[in-house]
Amino acid sequence: MSYQEKRTITSVFVGAVVLAAYCIYAFGRFNSGMAAADDLRFWASTMLIFIGIGIGAEIIVQIIFHIIFSIAIAIKENIRDEQCDEKEIEKKIERETVEDERDKLVELKSLRVGFTIAGIGFVGALVSLVLNNSAMVMLNILYLSFCVGSICEGIAQFYYYRMGL
Amino acid sequence: MTKKFEITNNIRKLRFFADEMTQQELAEKAGVSRQTIIAIEAGKYSPSLELAFRISDVFGVKIGEVFSYKVQDD
């Protein structure tokens, strides 16, 4: 499995964990009666906090992933050739993590998948308002569709890497 | 009736005749990742015109000797 594929899986995993954490926290509070459906301040602030957590977690996990990936390559290279120097290891890491036109195309195509799902979610959110659902339902459809869109974008990215463009 | 184009390549053969050049070596010379060379060789990715020229430059042959396309009628 290539660096890009592993990075995509990590990204999808982080997205899924943040989404699950939001659902557990927000709907947990709602079900226990600690948050009301019309308390839009609570829903908006919770979503903002979880957007921040999502971005922060993604950055931190990607940094950790890159460090672990580099260490794994260094260990592999040392096992293969005990006399290999740092420059060789650095070169190997650079080779494994290089991004080219195919990566950009995969990113672009998968981004389209993510935007499509987010777009469908936006329309769904508006439809929910037309159908007399509360603003909380509309906000949650909007937020969840963006989260699911992001996860699907990662899945599409993995699919394109595996199956080709 | 629609026409479908299938792009094929001779990269594997050209690598063999270039002293069994590795995919990594070709990738470095063409300025792409090894994964991209693997995908092109397997026919899972059609490179840009620029990359196609760079690959043919590596082997010192014309682009038509590396890539060719077949027309398929549906």
What would you say this structure looks like, in words?
The complex is a heterodimer of chains A (165) and B (74). By secondary structure, chain A is an all-alpha fold. Chain A contains five helices and no strands. Chain A has helices spanning 3-31, 40-80, 86-97, 101-130, 135-163. By secondary structure, chain B is an alpha+beta fold. Chain B has one domain: 434 Repressor (Amino-terminal Domain) (Orthogonal Bundle). Chain B has helices at residues 11-17, 23-30, 34-41, 49-59, 63-66; strands at 3-9, 67-73. Chain B has a two-stranded antiparallel sheet with strand order 1-2. In chain B, helix 2 (23-30) crosses helix 3 (34-41). The radius of gyration of chain B is 13 Å and the shape is globular. The A-B interface holds A 2, 4, 95-96, 98-103, 161, 163-165 and B 24, 27-28, 31-36, 39, 42-48, 50-51.
Largest interface, C-beta within 8 A? A-B, 14 and 19 residues
**CATH superfamily caption of chain B:** lambda repressor-like DNA-binding domains
> What kind of sheet is the major sheet of chain B?
2 strands, antiparallel
* CATH topology annotation of chain B: 434 Repressor (Amino-terminal Domain)
Low-pLDDT residue intervals, each spanning 5 or more residues of chain A = none
Radius of gyration of chain B over alpha carbons?
Answer: 13 Å
CATH architecture of chain B: Orthogonal Bundle
- Span between termini of chain B: 6 Å
Average per-residue pLDDT of chain B, rounded, comes to: 89
How many structural units, i.e. domains of chain B? 1
Look at the helices and sheets of chain B and give the structural class.
Answer: alpha+beta
Ranges of chain B with pLDDT <50 over ≥5 residues?
Answer: none
Annotation field: number of helices of chain A:
5
